[in-house]
Specification:
Length: 279
């Protein structure tokens, strides 16, 4: 695997590959790679000739400085995992390479900014769109791969690509889970053994909602789900919603695509998870 830290060098390399007709796949990440990230790399390998992975812990999308400070950065392990997975190119810039000037960014992504994660993490999606725009501009991928784990992020990026008319196809990949159901996340490393057990309430509750889903009793299901999570020791619920999979507004009787989404703090760690209830 070739490792680039400078955008100009990566761009030059990609230009020659593109000139040779290669279809470029892109997997943006913040590192601390796990099987979820590697499943995106695998999808990209199946659909593209060349796979570029980026590892960049983007400061502009963190609204909590402590969260940014403690975000894991095991770059040598990550390089080993990507090499083992057969990834072609890694882009691992530092903050100065990505943000040379004190630039401004704002993109009107409508209601998505104010709902769920947007509401709980003010400014988060401005930071996400800012960095993904920059990364797309550098890599110019034909196809970019994102995880359903960050469902709202996929909707936000889809909206950005549409608004700015960017020539990239987006693919959403399923959530990789531990054997007991916990959604894989780079932040799981911060969970104590007790937290790890209590965190299972999230995937359990989502599964329960999926099994029992019935359009006429959405409110009851939401209430029961919130009560189950609130009753779990060490877990503080942020939100639990059953939402329209396209708009993230609360789902109603006529909603076609339905997603249940949850955010909660377990011990000191904020986790998110979701399940597609009806497609
Ligand atoms: P992150 O490094 O957390 O920014 O994630 C990079 C990409 O990996 C995003 O598109 C995430 O949605 C995706 N991802 C994170 N966790 C998982 C998971 N458990 N399964 C599948 N994809 C994931």
């Amino acid at each position: 695997m070739k490792n680039f830290t400078k955008k100009a060098q990566l761009q030059q390399h990609l230009q020659s590959l593109r000139a040779g007709g290669a279809v470029i796949g892109f997997v943006p990440t913040m590192g601390a790679l796990h099987a979820g990230h590697l499943s995106l790399i695998e999808q990209a390998q199946q659909q593209c000739d060349i796979v570029v992975c980026s590892i960049f812990v983007n400061p502009t999308q963190f609204n909590d400085p402590k969260d940014l400070e403690i975000y894991p950065r095991p770059i040598q392990d990550d390089i080993a995992k990507l090499t083992q997975a057969g990834c072609d190119l890694l882009f691992n810039p530092d903050v100065a390479e990505m943000y040379a000037d004190n630039e401004k960014w704002h993109l009107d992504i409508g209601e998505l900014e104010a709902l769920l994660e947007g509401k709980f993490r003010p400014g988060h999606y401005q930071g996400v769109t800012q960095v993904v725009f920059k990364l797309f501009d550098i890599v110019k991928p034909d196809v970019a791969f994102f995880g359903q784990k960050d469902y709202q992020q996929v909707l936000v990026i889809t909206q950005m690509v549409k608004l700015l008319n960017m020539p990239v196809k987006l693919v959403m990949c399923p959530i990789e889970r531990e054997a007991d159901g916990l959604a894989m996340s780079s932040r799981n490393i911060h969970l104590t053994a007790d937290d790890r057990q209590h965190a299972l309430i999230l995937s359990k509750t989502l599964n329960n909602v999926k099994t029992k889903f019935d359009r006429n009793h959405i409110e009851q299901l939401v209430q029961n789900a919130r009560a189950a999570i609130n009753a779990e020791p060490g877990v503080t619920l942020g939100y639990f919603e059953i939402a329209d999979g396209n708009t993230l507004r609360p789902a109603g009787n006529n909603t076609k695509k339905v997603v249940a989404l949850v955010a909660a703090t377990v011990g000191k760690t904020r986790l998110i998870d979701n399940v597609i209830v009806r497609d």
